[in-house]
Structures are given as C-alpha cells and as structure tokens.
Amino acid sequence: xxxxxxxxxxxxxxxxxxxxxxxxRVDRRKGAVATLRGLGAEIDGRRIAFHEAxxxxxxxxxxTIGTRGCFLxxxxxxxxxxxxxxxxxxxxxxDVAISRSEMARLPGTLAAxxxxxxxxFYGGSPATETTSPLSPVAPDEAVMLAHFIAFSxxxxxxxxxxxxxxLAREPGSPxxxxxHVDGAxxxxxxxxxxxxxxxxxxxxxxxxxxxxxxxxxxSSDTNALLQxxxxxxxxxxxxxxxxS
Length: 244
Description:
Spore Coat Polysaccharide Biosynthesis Protein SpsA, Chain A, globular, 8 helices, alpha/beta, 7-stranded mixed β-sheet
C-alpha cells in the first residue's frame, strides 16, 4: 500500500487510519469529522476513512451484543489493513475527541513514536507519567482502552489470527474466549512479549460523553422525556473538556 504522505500528523505517522462508526450514529460521525479537521486531517476514503461498524443480532458468547459488535468491528478493520498490506493501522472509535491541550501535545508525541521501533501504541492511555511523550507498556500491563490504538504491520499479522481464535472459543475459555476488545488486546500483548508497546504520556485523545453502543443503556437513555436533557448535559460536558 503506497500513498503519498500528508502534512497532518495522523497521515504522516500511520499508513491507514480507520474510524469505526455505526451508520445510525450520525452524531458521532459528525464529531469524528470535526475532531480530525481540527488536526488538519480530512477523511478522504483512502488513507483516512470510516469503517462501518458491525451490529450483530446476538451476543454470541460475549457480555453484550455491543461488546461483540465492537470486537468484530476492530477485527474487520485489522483484516482490511492486512489485506491492503498496510505498514501500520490507527483505529479510532467514533467517540474519540481531542482537547486543546491534547491537540498541542499530539504532533510531538507522534513524532517521538515515529523515531521508535514500535508495534502497539495507545494514544488514549491512562498513564500519568509526564517526563516523556512516550512510556513503554509492559506485556503484562492491562490497558482497557481502545478508542485511539495503533498497530504495526507485524502486530497486525499476528493479531488477526489471535482475535479470530478468540471468536472460535467458548466463553470463559482459559485460553481466552469472547471478551471486550480492549481486554483481547491486553491478552495479545501478554502472549507476545516480543512486540513493543508504548503509551502516550500524557494521553493525546479521550472519549466523548455520549450514549453507549456497547453496554446496556441506563434508565436516563431509555426515558424519552429525559433524553433531550441528557444530550444537552453531555454536550456541555464535552465542550468544557474539549476546551481544556
């Protein structure tokens, strides 16, 4: 896969960028477009594109239908990157957001990443270390975030069959059965300690406050009278956080 490099930091660092989005989540789609435009990145359908998320009919051994759909969506993006021969893949979930302070840090963090031999990168990590824009992530360190995660070509090649094997196992399998995709990524890193993982320190992206597609909805999200108020409250919360 050979494409000319762009001046925006995402395209300059990653060969392929895919934003996972359910077609009915127009709100999140618009938010993702605005977030990327803030970085000077355009969704061109080639290097940067939406990946249509999967919404299965049943949980199929996963904790929820949404958990299974998220897992399948990430796997689909990875399979497509492998088929395209991408040298690296950045997966963004459609609730990703980048505040002013995160945006200021992002170019320097990605430039530091480009200087490292890396295989897995968490841009939305919970790490608190701030002496460097990057910190190594130990193989046995669980990172339960996947809204801004990237993989090298060798990691993609190994990860696709690893996730496919998880799908084929029974729930609760000691080898790793159906689980949340961020948990699967942590299991994968533990199984492949030779792969080099890093986290942005501090983080360069966060998740917007919005209605979940993975977990069961709370009473406020299912109450037609409260939904408009909840949407306004979330919009205010996101606006405050994104200005920080």
